[in-house]
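Researcher: Here's the sequence for the chain we discussed earlier.
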Amino acid sequence: MANRCVPLVLLACGSFNPITNQHMRLFELARDHLHSTGQYQVVGGIVSPVSDGYGKQGLVLAKHRIAMAKLALKSSNWVTVDEWESQQPDWTETVVTMRYHYQRILKEYEQRSTGMHTNSSSNATPLSSPPLQLKLLCGADFLDTFKIPGLWQDEHVEEVAGRFGLVCVSRGRLQPERAVHDSDTLSRHQQNIFLVREWVRNDTSATEVRRALRRGLSVKYLIPDSVIEYIHQHNLYTEDSERRNKGTVLRPLTKQAQQPVNSLDD
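Model: Thanks. This is the structure I predict for it:
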């Protein structure tokens, strides 16, 4: 029955400023949980760093965040780094990024499936594969962003939760169940939202990593050694870099007030 499981790809969007061991751990936890349901087969993971247009204070250039993510995930045989979102001239809505990746991976998956069927015995009639799914992977604090006024458009929340779905890994004392309960949209699609509990306590955050680096403190075992070496080589996360975008309003708050995005061409 394993071959009848729904193939699924996990997509993580965010600053990754810098990528941490906890970011990578989310993928492993999510995959274990989804496999334990007996319904899904995770076939890939994607790390998609946000573009420089996001406007967040202390955000280093995308080229550095991409390079660090690639170094960190060098040992993974199923999670990759995608540069599309980071290369966009403006900040991209999460739902638009999901549409892009779904179209891309669906095309690749269908091509592989067609090739497999072509190479199979002519006497065999292969069963049709379940449709590929893409779900947004996030931490528990992400669900709370849906409540921030002006940050999300209602139709975007509806599409992310209803059409795609989320896999939310809790950390610390955060309670994602409360966020789902408090939102009519999330509650309506709760069957498409998977809440994963991390029992091994790990509250590592990129914010704390940057703070430690600014103060000349060790971050060993919080982020990969290769990433630490890259940070030192390029003199990242200094007091000067933390002032980058200071006083700038986050791009989502200004862009979301404009016309809703209905397609990749908008």
